[in-house]
Design brief:
Elements (H helix, E strand, L loop, with lengths): L1 E5 L4 H8 L3 H8 L9 H7 L6 E7 L2 E12 L2 E9 L8 H16 L4 E7 L3 H10 L2 E2 L8 E7 L5
Parallel strand pairs: 4-5
Antiparallel strand pairs: 1-2, 2-3, 3-4, 5-7, 6-7
Helix pairs in contact: 1-3, 4-5
The chain binds coenzyme A.
Protein name: Acetyltransferase (GNAT) family protein
InterPro entries: Acyl_CoA_acyltransferase (IPR016181), Bact_Acetyltransf (IPR050832), GNAT_dom (IPR000182)
GO molecular function, one term: acyltransferase activity, transferring groups other than amino-acyl groups
Length: about 160
């Protein structure tokens, strides 16, 4: 059975198993994180305890992970969206993002929800477009594309 819960530091043990290279780490979490990965350091570097870190688990295993940060008045930012490699392409990424979007909109009253994605991360961009995110601003020199969702315009 699947359930949502707060993510904890020990979830990083599973996350670390899913990330095979510094490039994958960057795709998932953005630039600047330490490699090789270590559970406590990773949790600290992604501000695990300070941001709203959410986990979807199934039968005791982590299936998906993501974070919300409150960035400004009525603006939230989604970060570190991740689905277990063996469970991708089955809609879990969409379920994860919808969960985070609803929390941002309904609990934090977010009108604007932003995220950053590498422009060549095609699976992630397809997912965000499907959810209604649109490109906002231009690519930076690292190839990162900011995107935005206006919750007033959600169906
Ligand atoms: C991005 C990610 C969260 C998507 O999770 P998911 O569970 O596969 O998502 P969904 O099944 O809901 O949808 C994925 C979409 O990408 C497509 N897709 C999956 N793998 C793909 C690939 N390798 N290339 C292109 N499209 C791909 C799926 O077909 C689907 O597209 P659709 O809209 O046509 O149905 C997952 O691939 C992941 O964890 N990636 C690594 C971490 C990462 O890059 N996070 C994003 C940070 S911004």
């Amino acid at each position: 059975m699947k359930r949502w819960r707060r993510a904890r530091q020990h979830d990083m043990a599973q996350v670390i198993d899913w990330i095979d290279s510094p490039r994958q780490l960057e795709y998932w979490a953005g630039p600047g994180l330490s490699w090789p990965l270590e559970q406590r350091r990773l949790w600290r570097e992604i501000d695990g305890a300070w941001l709203r870190s959410r986990a979807l688990s199934g039968d005791g295993h982590l299936l998906a992970f993501g974070q919300i940060s409150l960035r400004a008045h009525r603006r939230c930012h989604l970060a570190r969206i991740l689905v277990a490699p063996g469970h991708r392409g089955q809609g879990l990424g969409e379920e994860l993002c919808r969960h985070l979007i609803h929390e941002a909109r309904d609990r934090l009253q977010a009108q604007r929800i932003t995220l950053n994605v590498f422009h060549d991360n095609h699976a992630a961009r397809r997912l965000y477009h499907r959810l209604g995110f649109i490109e906002s601003g231009t690519l930076d020199e690292r190839g990162i594309q900011p995107m935005i969702l206006l919750t007033d315009e959600m169906p």
